[in-house]
Structure formats: C-alpha cells, structure tokens
C-alpha cells in the first residue's frame, strides 16, 4: 500500500469495522491487542481525517418489504456529471450513486422499490435531470467483503 497514512493498528481497526460496524471499542481492542482508549483515539483520528466517513448497516431489503433492488447505468455530460450524480442521489428510492471517470456510462446507481411503478418513476426523474439511461438491471443478490489488505496479518 506504499505511502499509506495507516499503520497496522489502523488497518486492523478498519477491517473489524468493515466486518461489523457494531463491533464495540472493547471487542476491537481485544482483537487488535491494544487498549480501548487506543482504539477510541484512533477511530476519532480516522474520522477527523475523513478516512472513516460514517457507519452503515447491511439491510436485507426483501425482508424489509422492498422486493425490487435495481441498477441503472447512465451517461451524463462530463461538465454536469458530478452535479447530476448528486441530484440523482436525492431521488426518493435511490440508495447509492457512483460517478465514473469515463465519457460514456459514467454514472451507476442502485435504487429500491416495491413495484414496477417505482422503477418507472425513478427512470423518469433521471431522464428529467438530463442523464441518459443505457442499462437497467434487476439485482438478485448483493455481496461485499472487507478490503483484504486491512485484514490483520495474524488471521
């Protein structure tokens, strides 16, 4: 990882938080082999430096009654790409937007809904904002994993 501002303790803390953001400071301290105060201070520093931007929960959307999890790949004019990405994120039902450094298909978003009307509404709002939808996909499953280089070397 080269000139990373993170040491082994920071990476280990991040790994444990990625596995479960509800891990307590005490649990992380035990796993990392440092004091609770060290973990707390490191987390505060990681937050202050913008490395930890927030904490999130992994939701099973189907169990929560949101049967449709879908994705759109769009193209936005490069000069408006970032503003459009932020505007799209404000559309009710949109849960994630990624802005790519490409000319075409430079915005990817995920959204949730209960029926086809939700998909149609979101698609119309994206169109009205000025982004062109290229691909619409229904997501069956979503898997993620902590960043492996943050994994402590003793695991």
Automatic annotation (TrEMBL):
One Pfam family this sequence matches? HTH_24
The record, for SUPFAM superfamilies, names: Winged helix' DNA-binding domain
Annotated HTH asnC-type domain ranges read: 6-67
Alphabetically ordered keywords of this record? DNA-binding, Transcription, Transcription regulation
**Example GO molecular function term?**
sequence-specific DNA binding
Gene Ontology biological process terms, A to Z: response to amino acid
Family matches, as InterPro entries? ArsR-like_HTH (IPR011991), AsnC-type_HTH_dom (IPR000485), Tscrpt_reg_AsnC-like (IPR019888), WH-like_DNA-bd_sf (IPR036388), WH_DNA-bd_sf (IPR036390)
Where does it sit, as one GO cellular component term? cytosol
Per its record, how is this protein called by name? Lrp/AsnC family transcriptional regulator
- Classification of source organism: Archaea, Methanobacteriati, Methanobacteriota, Stenosarchaea group, Halobacteria
């Amino acid at each position: 990882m080269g000139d990373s501002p993170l040491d082994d303790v920071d990476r280990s803390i991040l790994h444990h938080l990625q596995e479960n953001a509800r891990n307590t400071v005490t649990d992380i301290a035990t796993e990392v082999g440092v004091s609770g105060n060290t973990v707390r201070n490191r987390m505060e520093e990681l937050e202050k430096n913008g490395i930890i931007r927030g904490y999130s929960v992994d939701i099973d959307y189907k169990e929560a009654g949101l049967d449709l999890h879908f994705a759109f790949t769009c193209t936005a004019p490069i000069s408006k790409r970032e503003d459009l990405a932020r505007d799209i994120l404000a559309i009710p039902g949109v849960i994630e937007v990624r802005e790519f450094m490409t000319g075409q298909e430079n915005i990817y978003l995920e959204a949730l809904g209960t029926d086809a009307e939700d998909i149609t509404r979101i698609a119309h709002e994206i169109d009205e904002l000025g982004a062109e939808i290229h691909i619409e996909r229904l997501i069956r499953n979503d898997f993620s994993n902590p960043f492996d280089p943050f994994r402590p070397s003793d695991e």
